Amino acid sequence: MFSHIRTIWLTFLHLFKKKVTIEYPEEKVKLHPRWRGRIVLTKDPDGGERCVGCYLCAAACPVDCIALQATEDENGRRYPEFFRINFSRCIFCGFCEEACPTYAIQLIPDFEMGEYKRQNLVFEKEDLLINSQGKYPGYNFYQVAGIQAGVKGKGEGDNEEPPVDVHSLLP
Amino acid sequence: MTVTQHVLIVVGVLFVMLNIAAGLIWVERRMLALWQDRLGPNRAGPLGIFIVVADTLKLFFKEDWIPPFADKKVFVLAPAIVVGSALLSFVIIPFAPGIVVADLNVGLLFFLAMSSIGVYSIVLGGWASNNKYSLLGALRGASQMIAYEVFMGLSLMGVVMLTGSFKLSDIVAAQQDMWFIIKQPVAAIIFFIAGIAETHRLPFDIPEAESELIAGFHAEYSGMKFGMFFVGEYIGITLISSMMTTMFFGGWLGPAFLPPWAWFFIKTFAFILFFILLRASLPRPRYDQLMETGWKILLPLVLVNLLVTGAVALWTRG
């Protein structure tokens, strides 16, 4: 009986406690740097697209919300012709980010993407591309890749030696 | 009192009571939230008061479905009974000197009769739903009501003994010098406990008991029929609170810097808030625990209280 009265009194005291509610539109939620929100395509330090159109993100996506078509420019550099993410399907699992070999596709802490029309949730490449290097500043895939694609000559990259002239190896 | 005045009082009481019942939706949700460290509905209108309008509109636009296996006439009738009987009880409550719809000389008996009729809504609603959970709820409701009705009436008899009248305005007038809470503390507490059981509010919401009976007697109800049960419950809370005020806390009596009706409403509102506080703090007892407390503890207690009151009344008179 006494415990009941004590319970009632303690519950009453909660009237004056600080409330835990976050009044969302006025008061923003604290999002951590690794929060998985909207998907973006980042650029390398030279301003070129990082995406090489390898389809690994589309293959990794468990809900098949990523569609792209790879193509090459005149220097032989691969890039996506179109890159489309259907955010009405996306579950923000981050598998695409893990699958990406060039750090191009990244999830950023932004979740406020409500739309009135479902079609508006389909993001094209120009909506996805951001003018930033995202979580990996200074990384340039073609700088370390072994191929020549207009960024550097063969063998000029970091940790790379010039190609060997096989004829000079003759005895 | 002229006819116009009388009609005005009737319409006024009806208007105020229905509005309080609706407003309690907001009060309850806000207060429950505050006691649970939340904020509650605060978006629509100032402090979220328009949630009442939103809730009512929602209830009106919900599909008003009558199950094909239900007993249709009784099914429709049941929710009307609870609202009707609770509203009828307000007929005898004196809000201020002169502001009372009908100051019957059997006022208290009328109140007890009306609150007993209220149980028909639960029994008929549960029976007509033709659903085993509803029936179980109705069954529990009926036995709970019978148990608690007994000492609800008996707890008020001490007050009647001291006043010598069933008329509520006489009872209020008799508290001019001292409120009956001081003379009859046991009766007041037991009446309040019985009142909670009577309105089947938490912690005594045995007939509903979401966790065991889904929603008990109103499991099959939807739309405004469900809303009527809801409104009936809130009117019931207001009724028990006003009865507490009238019987034990001096009704409209209070220092003169506020008008009598204001004192009445302040006291009533305090009890309504206490109802909500009880909901926020106490868990639901088991069904058999409830019945046991009722028959084995509260009933003897109220009889002893009655005996002592009678003896003291005789002694002081003789």
Question: In brief, what are we looking at here?
Answer:
The complex is a heterodimer of chains A (171) and B (318). Chain A is built from 5 helices and 5 strands.
Envelope shape of chain B:
globular
What is the helix tally of chain A?
Answer: 5
Strand content of chain A: 5-15%
As a percent range, the share of helical residues of chain B equals over 70%
- DSSP helical segment count of chain B: 12
Largest sheet of chain A: 3 strands, antiparallel
- Report, as a whole number of angstroms, the end-to-end distance of chain A: 102 Å
Number of strands of chain A: 5
The share of residues in extended strands of chain B comes to under 5%
Mean pLDDT over the full residue set of chain A: 86
Number of domain units of chain B: 1
**CATH class term of the domain at 31-136 in chain A:** Alpha Beta
Largest interface, C-beta within 8 A: A-B, 14 and 12 residues
